[in-house]
Amino acid sequence: MTPIRLLVADDHAVLRAGLRMLLDVQHDITVVGEAGDGAEVLQKARELQPDVVLMDLTMPGPPSGDVIRQVLRACPKTRVLVLTMHDDPAYLASAMAAGAAGYVVKKVADSELLSAIRAVHAGRTFVDLTQSLPAPRAAPDGAKAERPKELSRREREVLQLLAQGHSNQQIATQIKVSVKTVETYRTRLSQKLGLKGRAELYRFAVESGILNPDP
Hints:
Layout lengths: L3 E6 L3 H12 L4 E7 L2 H11 L3 E4 L8 H11 L4 E6 L4 H10 L3 E4 L4 H12 L4 E3 L24 H11 L4 H8 L3 H15 L3 H12 L7
Parallel strand pairs: 1-2, 1-3, 3-4, 4-5, 5-6
Helix pairs in contact: 2-3, 3-4, 6-8, 6-9, 7-8
């Protein structure tokens, strides 16, 4: 089996060294390079064409969203996995909108990080943000928690694409409907699930398994 070729990008050399110690002993992963800022990520990605770029969000240089987009343009077969200290869903939304295939926080266990690398390399989306997500709203005293109404196949599809960070226009193009129709689906999802805003839709998609469905 050909090992996963990984580029590690973080502006802290000590963290890169720690990651390398973890990754170098994996039989199916090989670190082909390191980068310490956004410009170096782009340079090394173009030179090495890695399978996966494991990158921090807050490095010196160009904004992380621009770096992700430029890496994906220069390396169409490369997947980007964000490893960051930021556990705010807004950062997740920004990274996924830029094209990241995965997002994990730095406090995850080593085994979870390795699972994320393997998952995004296999073409799946991987997000570990559950520790920072708000708990589901409790039902009033004496009342039973109401289960969300069942979603149609198309509603689930739109919710999954939203959770992956796609814009309304991108979703419309992908599922071949108008932008207005996508907006209608978003409104319907919010009403059915009792959720407000993209961050709450993310939380529901993660907790229900819609964000990272089985292949």
